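Quick log. Single chain, no ligands specified.
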Amino acid sequence: MTALEEFRTKARAWLDENCPQSIKGPGGVPVGGKKLAVKDVDAKRWLDLCAGKGYTVPMWPKQYGGAGLSKDEYLILLEEMRRINARSPLQGMGIGLIGPTLNEFGTADQKQRHLPPIARGEIRWCQGYSEPNAGSDLASLQTRAVAKEDNFIINGQKIWTSGADRSDWMFCLARTDPNAPNHEGISLLLLDMDQPRVTTRPIRLISGDSPFCETFFDNTIARKDDLVGPKNRSWAIGKRLLQHERSGIRILMGGAVKPARLENPFLQLIKTYGADSALTNQIISYRWSGVSRDGLENLDRWLGQMKIRPAC
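-> predicted structure:
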């Protein structure tokens, strides 16, 4: 028996023994964090078991809460989860975006402080990128961060911040050198959302849902040791972070759920929010967190086939 065959045997036995029956098949996936409790007992148990095994972030190093799997082992684990139709134990921007970025660019201290709580589903993260006048032209962002003693003092506004009102921490792009060209003078900062100088205001959509927020910083504090990468040189790191969103290779992105068919309940969602795939994908992440990446790819295909126009 090869090492990979042995790993498959052990992974299969562990999944068969530990995955609750109610977790097999489509359904919700916890996002973690302190502000939104996991009400489903089996989902919470599955999250805790997988976190203890390192299976919420299988390819992360063991010292940071992962299982230390190779890519081949990770793919085998996905195959075995698909075999029993098991859902992912955890999802969100912590394991999908900032976690992989810290693994690549973070200091040893940042990794030790932030990665294990992410892997255990204890902290929920949101993304502070877009601003009212800096959306597609993100490099024109104007949120300012000024160094003062051991901190950065942040002032400005972010918009379309998914789940900001329910998040514990934010990774935020801010301008630390206002005299530098647009793509320079930008730094990636990590900040605690639980401070009185951060205000979130949910944006209510026509459906009544509020998955997005405006976020306001009024002398908000970020520690200097929560600067990711060199000061003023974070544009490349910020773009690299977005590449993790596309790959999802180091996390279990609901990998067990089979590709959806055209009669999938996404149809009503598309009719409600219109044929804006970027917006609809974010709504799905918010409301149908158990959907696989294959399902999201199918959604893009459906949008093109159905030619549904946004409701007015």
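The CA atoms of residues 14 and 53 lie 10 Å apart.
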